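=== RUN LOG ===
request id: a7f3
mode: sequence -> structure
chains: 1
length: 411
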Amino acid sequence: MSINRIWKRGIGCVICLLVAVTLQAGIPPQSSSLRQLLKVGQPLDAAMSGQIARALAERTARSGLESLLAKQQYPLARRFLTSLAVPISSQYVNKLLKVSSAAELYPNKSFLTDEQVTPYFLSQINRRSTQFLPVIQKRQELIQGRLYDFSRAKTSIFHPQDQDLAWLAEQIPQQTRFLLIGEMHGHPEIALNVVKLLREIRQRNPTRSIILLTEFLPARAIWMGTHRAPLPHPSYFPAWEIARLMGIPVVGLEPDFVQKNVSVVTDGDCNVWSSFEGMRLRNARWMELILNAHENVPDALIVVYGGEAHMGYDWPYSLGNQLSELNPFVVMMYPTYLTGGNGWATTESSPFDTSTFGMFADDRILQFNDPELTRLAGFDVQLKVPRLPQTFEWANNTIFDFPPQVNLTGE
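=== RESULT ===
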């Protein structure tokens, strides 16, 4: 047995021992402890607040150990996840969420004070990881067991790459009300391909309203081309301006609590907003704005564009799952140059990585002609988009270096 395997097995034994010792140390069960403190009608005085604080500290310590143990128990999920399931311990309590209030994160939990919201949030991160790691493990096992079915159900693609977006627009049913587009972050050409896709959709249905809602602007912020206050993610500004020129409103989704804490929540490889609990809180706020847009313009195509882990049918709290009864269409986009040796391996949410699905690593389009496999895969279409030959930047409220021959607006 290799030293590395011996070390990993030893760490697993230590974790088991730590959890056992903690559970025998007289710490009351997490759920019952808080439930006893929060009985209906019981006054919340200073003494009670102190008891809640102690219970939350105990919960954070215990849940961190349990989450770490779960990561050891479910190797497929552990490899697949990275920052989505990093155990958090009480040492982070004084480092994270310096400026969030309890009402911002948990408006329905009136018992939480601003001082208590961080340990509560961190313990929820751990508890969600413990809850969902076995679910992710089971899904990965199901996918691995049906590789042959996936290969037989895969759509054959014969058209050239420059027709991919036109082909994709044809795959989206006319009655679709919610188009969910997930991206691999860090590749600006994806945003420009998104607006090129919207142009293709607009050409097929010129009278239908399209509204673009995005992770990459603050909640309710509307892209106007000029802004007094600075906005995040400037690499996306050219795409927003192109959409505006096509008459497509671009509206932000990201809650204030993410914007305010983006620089203080990351420690090493852990970003709490990418945890299961962080994603749940963000997606809940997104859903409010998405459904509000649909209610205001019922016939519009609501396009939601953000990170891949938000969008699919596969993740806990993902938008594809929450909107499943309304028949959304889910598209995942990645850069073309992730092929061969890299394939999908650098993506966090795609199950189609070279370590498990080498047979699909070089496919620029993935679509499966089987509803059950589509749900299991987590998307309707997965597409690798080309790197654009031109660079696009935003300077002085204008698109800079935007050659006339690259006509993205279709005008």
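=== NOTES ===
The radius of gyration is 23 Å.
The longest strand covers residues 210-218.
=== END ===
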